[in-house]
Write a structure and sequence with these properties.
By secondary structure, the chain is of the alpha/beta class. It contains 13 helices and 16 strands.
């Protein structure tokens, strides 16, 4: 579905994306991770055809994004972090307008599908301005998938939502991979662990890791932990023998009424569960429970990204280490690129189109538009 090959993007002298390659297939949710300023948004804009790469190639459904941008936009559903919608329209009117924009033949079927999938029924006839952020996110998701695109890009889809709303949105996202390849960009690592099949981590515009969480942990030789609960209390000699085993870095013990929990940490590629079990047996300990706790995504992320970023004292956001000249060139060039690709009157044109669509809908209902 999506193939990114040796892609680079520059703004003046600043390299926002540097020689990045990865792919996403149908039925896969890929988590795109990286600190602020790592190049995630630039990557998503290039995939969706808003920016062109300076080097490399990007194909969506086997079509190069630079050769046929209209095709690309028709086959992508994009939910940006700041979701633009027409607040004066009802949810039904807004989605009707979006369906018209995509030229959907069976519009009533498409509207019914997203209404059910995103659970919009309760507020379907309310104006968007009257909705909570969680409700607006569901409408934005419906807007992104109404044309059943083979590729879906979601930028911080659960940002600012309460736990119940997050749970609902996650359930919807899980269903999307049935017909699409999904890219999910987020800073919420628990979200990636909960719903993503694969992970891509970028740092300073470069790809530093890709694959499943366990594969990445193995690549960076991350730590691993085994929790073993044994009846009684291990002797000091038994614990000394445990610490001497190959691959074990440290251990902690927690005593309960009739048992002891021993948490054993070691290197990912050498510590084995059978070694822990044989240690317990050889020391006449009855094992009640033994399970593996792999490296958390948080520790993997930090080990790959935290050493190259600093906190900018003039901003609350982490920023990359740039010289003053690089920052100025980056900001100036990006502003020029944005102004060229988005004409100043484009917003007014869209609002005019939305109002025409709203008038059309209300006329069908026998109403009037002031």
């Amino acid at each position: 579905m999506i193939n990114i090959t040796n892609v680079s993007k520059k703004y003046g002298h600043f390299t926002a994306v540097n020689d990045v390659s990865f792919s996403v297939e149908k039925g896969t949710i890929l988590g795109l991770l990286g600190p602020n300023g790592a190049g995630k948004t630039t990557l998503m804009k290039m995939i969706s055809g808003f920016h062109n790469p300076h080097a490399g190639s990007i194909t969506v459904c086997d079509v190069d994004v630079t050769s046929n941008p209209i095709f690309i936009k028709k086959n992508i559903g994009y939910l940006p972090e700041t979701n633009p919608m027409y607040g004066e329209l009802t949810v039904e009117e807004h989605l009707d307008f979006i369906a018209d924009s995509h030229g959907i033949d069976d519009k009533s079927k498409a509207l019914s599908r997203v209404k059910h999938l995103c659970d919009l029924g309760v507020f379907y006839h309310k104006t968007i301005d009257s909705l909570s952020k969680g409700m607006r996110q569901r409408v934005g998701l419906a807007q992104a998938i109404i044309h059943t695109p083979p590729v879906i890009i979601l930028d911080e889809p659960t940002s600012g939502l309460d736990p119940n709303q997050i749970h609902e949105i996650r359930n919807v996202i899980r269903q999307l991979k049935e017909f699409s390849a999904v890219i999910l960009s987020t800073h919420i690592l628990q979200e990636v662990e909960a719903i993503c099949d694969e992970i891509v981590i970028v740092r300073e515009g470069s790809l530093v890791a890709k694959g499943k969480r366990e594969e990445i942990a193995l690549q960076i030789k991350g730590d691993i932990r085994y929790d073993v609960e044994v009846l009684g209390v291990p002797t000091a000699n038994a614990l000394k023998k445990l610490h001497s085993k190959k691959g074990i870095v440290s251990y902690d013990t927690t005593k309960y009424e009739d048992a002891t929990l021993v948490q054993v940490r070691g290197s990912y590629d050498s510590l084995k569960g059978e070694d822990i079990f044989s240690w317990a047996v050889s020391n006449n300990l009855v094992v009640r429970e033994l399970h593996k706790e792999s490296s958390r995504l948080e520790s993997i992320f930090q080990s790959l990204t935290q050493d190259t970023f600093t906190q900018d004292t003039s901003s609350s956001d982490p920023v990359e280490k740039r010289t003053t000249q690089e920052s100025t060139a980056y900001a100036t060039t990006k502003k020029q690129a944005t102004s060229q690709e988005f004409p100043k009157n484009s917003n007014e044109h869209l609002k005019s189109s939305a109002k025409r669509s709203s008038s059309k809908i209300n006329t069908k209902k026998g109403g009037s538009v002031s």
